[in-house]
Hints:
The structure holds two protein chains of two kinds. Helices cover 36% and strands 24% of the residues of chain A. By secondary structure, chain A is α/β, with parallel strands linked by helices. Chain A has two domains: 4-79 and 155-161 and 172-261, P-loop containing nucleotide triphosphate hydrolases (Rossmann fold, 3-Layer(aba) Sandwich); 88-151. In chain A, the strands form two sheets. Chain A has a six-stranded mixed beta sheet with strand order 6-7-8-3-9-10, sandwiched between helices. A four-stranded antiparallel beta sheet of chain A has the order 2-1-4-5, covered by helices on one side. In chain A, helix 5 (166-183) links the parallel strand 7 (154-158) and strand 8 (186-191). In chain A, helix 2 crosses helix 3, helix 3 packs across helix 4 and helix 6 (194-200) packs antiparallel against helix 7 (234-261). The termini of chain A are far apart. By secondary structure, chain B is mainly α. Chain B has a single domain, classed as MetI-like fold (Orthogonal Bundle). Helix content of chain B is 78%, strand content 0%. Chain B has twelve helices and no strands. In chain B, helix 5 (89-121) packs across helix 11 and helix 8 runs antiparallel to helix 10 (197-234). The longest helix of chain B has 38 residues, at 197-234. The interface between A and B is medium-sized, with 27 and 19 residues. The structure holds adenosine-5'-diphosphate (ADP) and magnesium ion (MG).
Amino acid sequence: MSEAKLSVSGVRKVFEGRAGEVVALDGVDFEIAEKEFVTVIGTSGCGKSTMLSIIAGLEEESEGEVLVNGEPVHGPGRDRGVVFQSYTLFPWMTAQKNVEFALHGTKGERADIAREHLELVGLEGFADAYPSQLSGGMRQRIAIARALSYKPEVLLMDEPFGALDAQTRQLMQELLTRIWEEHRLTVMFVTHDIDEAVFLSDRVLVMTARPGRIKEDIRVGVERPRTFEVLSTPEFFEYKSRLLEAVREESLKTATEQLAVR
Amino acid sequence: MAEAISKTPEAGAPKRAPAGRPAGKRRRKLAGIFDPIEPRTYMIIALLSFAVLFFGWWVAAEIDLAKDIFLPSPADVWNRGVELAKDGTLWADVKVSFVRITIGFLISTAIALPIGIAIGTYRLAEAAIEPPVDFIRYMPAVAFLPLTIVWVGVDESQKWLIIFIGTFFQQVLLVMDNVKRVPREYVDISHTLGMRDHSVLRKVVLPAAAPAIWDTLRITLGWAWTWLVIAELVAASDGLGHRIIVAQRYFQTDTIFVGILVIGLLGLIMDQIMKYTGKRIFRWAE
Ligand SMILES: Nc1ncnc2c1ncn2[C@@H]1O[C@H](COP(=O)(O)OP(=O)(O)O)[C@@H](O)[C@H]1O
Ligand SMILES: [Mg+2]
């Protein structure tokens, strides 16, 4: 069929809540090509996490279809790696064991593969540390190492840096960009941070306010390799202001809706 | 450029900051909400409060606030305790009570753990088991005393049964809650790693809930002591509770005090052992 690594078509999601039905997603369509870094951006509550969960197979769509390599998704699987914002590591396992945990049934030396990936995120010296002994940024790096270690086809990241302070966050963005530029993975990244979206992505998809749909699909032409210096280029600002406007329209919709309810 | 920066208000900020908090002379606030204190300070205050309690008792007995028969002095109680320890009564009572609580508590725990874990993880199991357990929990365990005697008589199994009735239903609900509090992210991540439910339960949910479950056991063990003593007060021919009820018949208030203090002490020791062991096993949870 298509060349897309990940293809989402006509996805609709209705939650049965206590206060009746909540239509979280309504007609989401997009594709992600192989080795493309795509960010989904939108106001809080527009359905980003729901979309990601459906692709991960953790939630079921009410209508529509998700294909990975042309195959429909049925439940979670090792072809899709996931990094969440919080509770990403198992606190009773060391960093090393956390990564090894993802490698059950993997051929080759699990310990070696795990160590290699800790090295990739610059934490080989913390292999024996427990998550409680590590900073938030370090924990997310290990979570990324774990998600990469078993080589999923698509990496799904739901605001993985959302709980970090601004400085750490930027370092994490640079780290992720560096890894991505070296290894070229297929990534769907979710955020509500516009700078983050522009800095990381090949393409940015803007979602509408709830019910979520893809409203705009913007290709980011900022050259690679990217370092923090691109943040101050006019080109970067151009993409940023375009996205700001698109997202702002949607936030305003949500805000006026909430006011109207009162 | 550098000049321009130094004129900005931010540049002045570091100069102001030390004024608010003089370097080297950190003024420690002790009494604020959630403010930490030194472990040593904590210890001293704790010991002091025991000393005050003890001193109050001693004074009350000294000035004969009540007759000795109602309130024996610390010295009387101590002497009585030594006497009971020497003739072996105390040790025999402690042993009997200890064995009872251990057996009763272990039976209860052994059954409560799997059920609590099952209803914490599977909604179907919860629907079937949680409502009746919740209902029974509100029935006073003491009211079951006569029933237990009718059912199993007054031998050891009746003590176990009372401890069981008093402990089991609470344990089931607390363990259920412990399991439910395991972050869903852990389960989601495990599923995306291709794990099946049964291994997620074994390798993720259980270890994640283990520290909280351990705490549940520690707390319910404390409650189990109450049930043990009640069982022994009502129908037993030995044990610490029995010693207390016999002493009451002969107005041996000092013996009653010895019994109560020993029970309290045993409870405290077991609690501390559980706490310490828990900290050792679950070092990661800090
Ligand atoms: N399990 C659920 N049950 C009911 N409503 C839900 C559930 N999960 C999400 N929602 C609702 O769906 C909408 C989208 O949520 P979410 O995908 O988490 O948004 P985002 O990640 O963009 O902030 C929200 O209005 C949220 O309240
Ligand atoms: Mg979200």
